[in-house]
Design a protein that fits this description.
It contains five helices and two strands. By secondary structure, the chain is mainly alpha-helical. The chain has one domain: Ferritin, core subunit, four-helix bundle (Ferritin), CATH 1.20.1260. Helices cover 69% and strands 2% of the residues.
Length: 194
């Protein structure tokens, strides 16, 4: 996973540009993936969330283009190997056979891995922009970070409320004695409640 594409950084500005170009490629790579995930979702609410994420990703691309232009750069993507791998994993699920409810749980887990990568990237880019006094860029990055956090919470809520209980065969709230946790907790529910 190449988080940093340049091998030489002369300034913090170079580092910010590198991060923005990485995010730009990451967002562009996943735009069409959301639509494909929506088509494979058994749960209508999940399909709607994925369609909404496609639109949000396109908004993020536009914000990143604005941020790069503000820095005097023509928007270009540096290959984001991490997102390339995450998208490939998500697309492998599209051909998965078996229980559609379980596949929906897997789609949520995959989508949240993608979101968590982006949240880390947007938070880092925002902090770098603030440090350099690029308040407008920092604001754009915060908006995208807020979008990702909101979508992550919505997916967690849907997983806990409907998808995971269905995938577990309707065992919502029952404790798994071998693991010491309820069946209805999504695997990605690792962040403290705000």
């Amino acid at each position: 996973m190449a988080l940093f594409h340049r091998h030489h950084f002369d300034s913090m500005n170079d580092l910010l540009v590198d991060q923005l170009e990485d995010l730009y490629d990451a967002e562009k790579r996943q735009c069409d993936t959301h639509r494909k995930l929506a088509e494979k979702s058994e749960t209508p609410e999940l399909a709607a969330m994925f369609r909404q994420q496609d639109s949000i990703a396109r908004t993020h691309v536009t914000r990143l283009e604005s941020a790069l232009r503000e820095l005097g750069r023509e928007p270009k993507a540096e290959t984001c190997d991490a997102m390339k791998g995450l998208v490939k994993e998500a697309e492998h699920l599209l051909g998965a056979d078996g229980d559609p409810s379980v596949r929906d749980a897997a789609l949520i887990a995959s989508a949240q891995r993608i979101m968590h990568y982006e949240m880390a990237g947007y938070g880092t880019a925002r902090t770098f922009a603030e440090e350099l006094g690029h308040q407008q860029i920092a604001q754009l990055m915060q908006q995208s970070l807020d979008d990702e956090e909101r979508a992550d919470k919505q997916l967690t809520d849907l997983a806990m409320r409907r998808v995971n209980p269905n995938a577990a065969g309707g065992t919502a709230g029952r404790w798994d004695d071998t693991q010491g946790r309820p069946f209805d907790k999504p695997a990605s529910d690792t962040y403290p409640k705000h």
